[in-house]
Amino acid sequence: MSKVWRGFASDNYAAAHPAVLQAMVDVNEGHQVAYGEDDSTKQLSVLIKQHFGESAEVFPVFNGTGSNVAALSALMERWEAVICASSAHINMDEGGAPEKVAGLKLWTVPTPDGKLTPELIESQAYGFGDVHRSQPKVVSITQSSEYGTVYSVSEIKAITDFAHKHGMFVHLDGARISNAAASLNLPFRAFTTDVGVDVVSFGGTKNGAIAAEAVIALNPRVAEALPFIRKSYMQLASKMRFSSAQLVALLSNDLWLQNAKHSNQMAQLLFKEVSAIPGVTVTKPVQANAVFAILPPEVTERLQKRFRFYVWDPATGEVRWMCSWDTTEDDVGLFSSAIAEEMAKA
């Protein structure tokens, strides 16, 4: 067995939480009806309604890209478009899947912090009825954002009010929705259902699960379309009990919240440690489990030989460090010391 190590490249690198693994073992007995008619998926449906409201319907899928593409497709026709931040995962990190698989146009908006506002959305919300322009139909926001920033309840409400006023829907990419809820100290529904979000891509993988994501339909239109879209987009699991059991484990007894709070706290500790290192510039507010900073290129190159992490913007030297549910204080201390050592050589 290889030596145990923990880095700061991505929360996708983290191990599965033991309770998640145990949940999969627990359902690995006997036969269960396939394609979502199993006991675990039924239990998950109950839990989702508790967290998001009685009208919420859940559709487990394999991964975040599949969740996003399926969710968006359920709200749109092929001649319609999505307005999103230029840094959005659907634009930057999904291999063109929204365009290639779903045939959707993305109208992107540059943002300084990864967050949209009604004013920014308005810059692309035009041309309604113009056959020459792909019609804006969905606004997609990420909570927490790709920059680790978190929308407040009022910020999301302003976006949904603007979108609905203009005949558009709102999709929330919640790959790290648990980190956002922990940061806000609010239940999921407070910044989704209660403020008019139409559909949520719910992430479990980055918070202790293994390939367990879901689309949560808060708008009946999504719930009607999703069964067919999920199948045709190759996101319908036959042995769904194993993915549903993971999400049940996270959503039971507030494990999702414990994991998210911990990773957020580790990011705050990392922020505190690196902020004290001369020459390191933290570039974004640390509101969830991400820390962004600028290092000299030669320091980054040396440091990456010791720890895995990603360069976010090669033009500026900005890097991203992610904390996970299993990040420890010792991990943060070791990494911070390494940064200080390399900076001292700069």
Could you characterize the architecture of this molecule?
- A seven-stranded mixed β-sheet has the order 1-7-6-5-4-2-3, with helices on both faces. A four-stranded antiparallel β-sheet has the order 8-9-11-10.
- Helix 1 crosses helix 10 (240-251), helix 2 (39-52) runs parallel beside helix 10 and helix 8 crosses helix 11.
- It is an alpha/beta fold and 346 residues long.
- The protein is 40% helix and 16% strand.
- The model has no long low-confidence stretch (mean pLDDT 96).
- The chain has two domains: 18-253, Type I PLP-dependent aspartate aminotransferase-like (Major domain) (Aspartate Aminotransferase, domain 2); 255-345, Alpha-Beta Complex (Aspartate Aminotransferase, domain 1).
Largest sheet: 7 strands, mixed
Computed Rg: 20 Å
Kindly name the structural category: alpha/beta
- Uncertain stretches of 5 or more adjacent residues: none
CATH architecture of the largest domain: 3-Layer(aba) Sandwich
Return the average pLDDT rounded to an integer. 96
Trace the largest sheet across and list its strands: 1-7-6-5-4-2-3
- Taken in chain order, the helices and strands follow as HHEHEHHEHEHEHEEHHHEEHEEH
Q: Which CATH class of the largest domain? A: Alpha Beta
Question: Which structural traits does this protein have?
Answer:
2 domains; 16% strand; 346 residues; alpha/beta; 7-stranded mixed β-sheet; Aspartate Aminotransferase, domain 1; 13 helices; 4-stranded antiparallel β-sheet; Aspartate Aminotransferase, domain 2
In brief:
It contains 13 helices and eleven strands. It has helices spanning 18-26, 39-52, 64-73, 89-92, 97-100, 118-122, 153-165, 177-184, 220-232, 240-251, 255-275, 297-304, 329-345, and strands at 57-61, 80-85, 105-109, 135-142, 169-174, 199-203, 213-217, 281-282, 290-294, 310-313, 318-322.
